[in-house]
Amino acid sequence: MRKLIRLSSAAERLGVKTATLRDWFLKRKHLDFVKAGRAVCVTEDSLERFIDSNMIPHVEGRRA
Description:
Distance between the termini: 44 Å
Largest sheet: 3 strands, antiparallel
Shape: elongated
Number of domains: 1
Helix content: 40-55%
Structural class: alpha+beta
Number of strands: 3
Radius of gyration: 14 Å
């Protein structure tokens, strides 16, 4: 069974506003959403894939 995360929790985890995730939901962007009745959720797998695909790797020896 897939784990579902409410938009408010997913937004907090990503560091964005819930309104941003609602916008992505309406535009069908970036994440896999699940609508159950009035509730909109994000799958845990989709959230993890999004985080992994947007990770910027650390580069050794670079100065700020």
